[in-house]
Amino acid sequence: MSPRSPSAVSAPLDTLSYTAPSRIRTFLCPVGLISRPRFLDFVSRLQDTAIIRLGDVTPDPRPERVMFSPQGFPDGFVVYNFVTAVDSHHAFLEDLELYRRTFAVFGLADYSNISNLTDLQVVIGALQAQHPQALIHKVILFDCPLDQNQLPSVDFICVPPKRASRIASVRTTLCDLTSALLAELPLLAKAFQTTDTIASPLARDDDYDSVTLTTVPGALSRSSPAGSTGSLPSTINKDNRIAQPLSHHTERQRMRRKGRSMKIIGNMYLLAGRTFDALKEYTEALNVLKGVNDHLWHASCLEGIGICMAILAYIGVPFVIPSAVLPPVSPSSDKRELETPQLLDLLPQMTSTILSLYNRSQNFPGESVPQITYAETILRMTNLLTCTALAGGWTAAARAAAVLSRPVPEISIPYSQFHHAKMNVMNWIAAAQMVRLDGVNSVDAARILTGIAAACGKLGYLRKRGFVLRQLVAELIPRILQARRVAQNRWSHVPRSGVDDDEYWDDSRDANVQQQELDSSVLAVLSDICDVYGIPVDPSSEFSSFGWQDVKTSILKTCIGLCQVIPDYVGIAQYTSMLFRFSANDLSVDEQLAMSRNFRNAYTSARSLGAQGFEHEYWDRYLVRDIAVVESSLWAMPSLVQLEAARSNGTDASSPFIYNPFGKKGDEEENKHILVLGEPVEFKVILQNPFAFELDISTMSLIGTDADFSSDVISLIVPPRKLYPISIYLTPTSVGVLNVIGCKFQVFGCKETILPITPTMAPITPPARIKNFGLEARISSMVEIPSPSSVKQVSVEVVPALPVLRVKRISLLQGSLMLLEGERRRFVIALGNVSETVSANAISFSFSDSTTKSLGAALEEQFRSESERYEIEMFLHKRAALRCVTDLNELEIPANGEAEIEVEVLGKRGLTAGHIEISYSHIIDSDLLLEERYVRTLTVDINLTVNASIEVAGCDFVPFSYDMPMICTSDGQVTTTDFLLKFLAGVGIPFEEMDSYCIMLLDLRNSWPSQLTVELDSRLGANDIHTIREVIQPGHLSRLLVPIRRISDVDTSLPIPSLSPRKQFTRQSTRSLPGSASTKSLVWSAEVERKVFWYREELLKLLDGRWSDNIADTDSLRKGAVELRGLRISPQMVDIVRVDNVVVDLSLTSSEHTRRSGKYHWVIEADSFCTLAASVTSHSVAGSVSGILRLQPTLRNLPVSTALDINRRILFNGILQMPVVGIKSGDVRRIETDFVLLARGEYEFVASFEDTTTGFDGRTYLCREKLVISCN
Questions:
Q1: pLDDT score of 594 more than 90
Q2: SS in 3 state form for 902-962?
Q3: How far apart are CA 771 and CA 875, in angstroms?
Q4: Mean pLDDT throughout 1080-1084?
Q5: N or C: which end of the chain has fewer CB within 10 A?
Q6: Is residue 598 within 8 Å of residue 571, measured between CB atoms?
């Protein structure tokens, strides 16, 4: 096993912090089998404990290793800079800036993936071979349950599992590693102290003569800097030998070597956390280097003193500012200038001095300052001043931010103070921008410019930051293009005119370009630029809410061009995906096609080179516009039936309202789809492709939550610029609620992406163009991040397995049937269960016909009276055209079985088609108590033809009259030869009771082209039914005389009922009376309409009609019922049919002076005493009746004025009006009055009864027949 180099992991510490030179660079690499997430987790655990206090570090007991003992300054601390990438570009700076050196190499291993610890022994040797400049090489075993004593070597460090260890255990481990590192630092210090020559970074080889010297353990092998005029620094030559000057070196050179070595020792003390010792070494080295005019090292030493003072100020340890760094004071200075300056004022002055020394070093060849050092010195001071500006001064928060890169909390700062601090920082930023970038490589140039941009962003100078980043892009593009051309020339097989490779690469160094620059760091810089311009690199993030769209499009195109030049196929695919995602609308058709071709080629090339896991998600989040369930044509989709609601016709019995507008709408249930377990269901998916190129989808499947299912996986190509429908099947595998939330796609060149259903796109509202000042201008120009305005999900219910029924056959020829009105016919439907596992044991039928719609439309008409509405509802709800004859309670169709069901059809007028809906399900005993059930529905349509048969053409009513002559036979019986008496005798009605009956004249028409026999039954009593039989020829009308028993005991105060199940109230309506034009203006009142309605209903209960044809073959005999609800009666007819609540009857008492010539006709002698008997009979259903009986005698056949003149013609013994009280229902009260007729002639007696039960405004009842008396 060998260590592997992962991609760089961003460290939490700021690399441009003012105290960044005080951190120990430590390289972390994965060892053994370890996943990237696990490795990053281990790195994060180490970064959490990167600051180690020296008081917690155990010192090394060896006396030769105590030079950097932690006991020398227990309050100090060591700060680790953990990195996961080796920086070989700045190796030439490691003598001058020792913090760039890698001091420790830690291999991170996952103990759970290691089978044998002895195999890791070779890892230590590999780490030492790959990183010989490091002082310690260790392997840290994370999640290791073993003790340290159980490990095979001291080079292995054990860290317990995370759940069993706290952060203190990792800190203890780092304390032990720090102890080992501090014990190795004396060896490196001794090596530098014994070296006679320490060269500057840009020193040339010919500045010193080289002699062979044994290599010091741990010495670093360095390479030449990019852009240097020499080939190698002086300390190590090309043959890896330490260079020593000849014996003729002067005293000045020896003092310079001494000052430089002291400065390096100060660097080591600073890295080791012994800040006081570092400050002392820096001060002594400063005096030496200043005396020999070593400007470069003098400035570096001065910078180290500033860092030491900043760290000591953070720790809170008092110190004395060295006099060598204080500004010079003239003898004429006042007392204020003689005081020691504040540290915050002193540090910028020291940095100005440092920059001045750096500028002086440019006059000495080989001793000049590298451009990266010069620029980073300015940026570190800029970072320090930025922290103090944000913190409001040299506060504790500012010191923590400057030393440990802690975030500065937001505080309120006076504007004048903050503005002055910002102006001071901007002066330093201007100085950093003046640094020439010709002598640095591309990565360093990017770091310098991004550092400047970061400082501008922290201070709120956003436009300044944008300008710097644009400068960064302009600086980066030609360098990458030139690097690409150099690489192409090197790899080509064309001869280069004798120019050898070494000379070629020397020239390339002069051009400041190296092949090593073309790595992932360039792509990291591009990612940073995208973030700054509002283009998120993370595929899971949305478009940023600031920046110009045109600029973003231009930046993305530039990134794609750079990746093509490198070439980096992964970068091409990445930034092309981002371009399609964020700026597709800004691309023309040709640009989209070209980008699509480049994307496919780059993806294919990257995969052929072995690249894995670089795919991004698909760029259009609105790919899935809609998903809907397609009802299967093979079997019906089940529905949920509320059993209780079905029995109550959809109303809630517990609610006081028949209709509740706030109740659950029926549409919600209709829109809910229900799937059956194990049955595949088709889903229709609408995909959109707004681009100008075809969309190649490798795999597509449905995704959902809750219930389990299996989805088909399909591949397809979506045409350009289209909404493309596609069908995909899904099979539920578990019962429950299944929520289809979207689709999973594998688009060519993209990773598997899960996209939701987005029916509508979110609009982007452009901001108002309003001028503002300061940060408000940026805030007001932000665009709301577009997000799907509505994300849809398709919720379906998955129910247990259900049977599937099919119609095998119908006993109708071609599904059609002809019948007459009122006729009933039957046919058979054979049902088969095609399910192999489930039987159908719960089957129900529901019917509808072609008359339903027309009757419903008529019912909605507003002008209909209540009686007409009742008739329509009667034919709509009570006269069903179809009826199931078979008992369905015991019916069960087994799996793969068959059953026959008999259905009866009733011929209704206007019936042309019938619709049979068969609902079926499978229930078990536990389902019997459920209030709802899942059923399937099977529909059967039949064609019906209904012809007219017997129609009611009209009717009238005639009362029986006693006004006829009567003959007394020898035996004293009254008889007559009149036709009426013959009719009564034929019907069986006694003559004395004929006033309890009436005659209905019923006209019937035969509309069938063959004669029909009609039989009409009239119920005259409880067991007395009179039947009338009549043969009616085709097209003829026949009048039937139907005796009707007069109707009594009808409560006409009841409202007209409604047969509609959802009708809440009835509207009071009026109706025109039938008749002539003069009577049409009359209107039926509600009372009259109720009276006519209830007497008509009672009349229909007494009648029953049927018809049949005269064919002899009884098997083919047609028969049916006469539709008598076509009868229409008027209030006058009701007066004939009904029996009043109070009946008044007049008669005479038989005597020798009286003779009866008719039931209501008497002959008496003049001047004889007679008795007039008035009988009052109560038929009221409301209780007892009281009133006033009035008798009115008149002369017959005379005008009214003369007829009432009876004062001298009749004498009465009593009064003609008298009270009658408390007549119970069914009782008869008889009142007798004596009278004498004084004059001969014909007289009429009429009686009336005024009902005063509820007051004197009651109804008056007249006797039906007048009493006629002839006086001789």
A1: yes
A2: EEEEECCCCCCEEEEEEEEECCCHHHCCCCEEEEEEEEEEEEEEEECCEEEEEEEEEECCC
A3: 75
A4: 49
A5: C
A6: no
